[in-house]
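Late entry, magnesium ion complex.
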Amino acid sequence: MSTMVDLRAVTKRFGSFTAVNDVSLEIAEGEFLTLLGPSGCGKTTLLRLIAGFDTPTEGSVWIGGEDVTHLPPYRRPVNQVFQSYALFPHLTVAENVGFGLRMQHIDKTEAAARVTEALALVSLTGLDARKPHQLSGGQRQRVALARALVCRPKVLLLDEPLSALDAKLRRSMQLELKRLQRQLGITFVFVTHDQEEALTMSDRIAIVNGGRIEQLGTAHEIYHRPATRFAADFVGQANLLEAQLLLQDSECVRVAVTGGLELTLPLAAWPAGATVALIAMRPEKVHVSKSRSSTAFAPGAANIFQARIEEEIFQGATDHLILVTAAGTRLGVVVANESALGDIFHAGDLVYCGLHTDDLVVVKAE
Ligand SMILES: Nc1ncnc2c1ncn2[C@@H]1O[C@H](COP(=O)(O)OP(=O)(O)O)[C@@H](O)[C@H]1O
Ligand SMILES: [Mg+2]
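Prediction complete; structure with ligand written out below:
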């Protein structure tokens, strides 16, 4: 697939402050790419550089194979949707959606047809004559989306477009947006600080931290193979354990982690020549059982150890357990709540834990 957006070694400084630091990123045509990171990490600045509202201090911006670094926003095949909707309150839904077409002096009949089509795309047929204050938050966001789509951009930039919506509406809009993106085949660059949203919607996620891209990958790669401490901690939950090398053979290494628990990892996962490293362990990868011979441990659960349940936190579909191993290592673990008859695990219980060697991931400490 061809590249639609290409950021080449882009740096953006405001005075002495570096908001975007040497970012290179290729976004494919038709891709749903999410910029995910905490507040202030540079996500909006990256979007503004693609849109042309800001110019890079260094590097260049390419869209559709063309160097657009010095083109103004209206000359770029890009449109955007903001968190705040930015609708004109005195204009109707149809007038808001058709605004960009009027600016482009598009023929009235064609403009009306395109507005109708755009409203149908976002399930707002029949609401043409309403004013923004007569709409719900979700409907207003759909108007903003229709207004951006009606201009048929090659790239749609979405800056935290769902963050003003309540949790339930937000989840249904996530699925709807994703469906719309697939249907239209437009390249989406979507910004969020919400990791669940990023995992749900994206073809690929770029984790942004301090103006840099820390990791770029599919949701699956980012979640199962986080590259850095920040990525492991920001997306999902992770036990982060300092590991000290004890032994190694041709296939495996044996390490002792914070607190004293000893674990086995594949040799290939361990950084060559290192004596210490940081390990990320997802809480649901630890299988917990009252019996040492649990089938959940086999095959390949080379790490089997005992632990005491210090705390049990009921979370509906899952139970969150805080475990302390015999050696004194504390681990957060998540188990499915499969029985309505009562919890299987209780604080104070002694349990066995099984962990596959492949579920221990060495991450960069910084
Ligand atoms: N026009 C500007 N002048 C000075 N600093 C700015 C400007 N725009 C953004 N910044 C700073 O750059 C950093 C990144 O901002 P932003 O891209 O808005 O982050 P995000 O969208 O990830 O929350 C922040 O520290 C912000 O204060
Ligand atoms: Mg922002």
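The longest strand covers residues 303-315. Will revisit in the morning.
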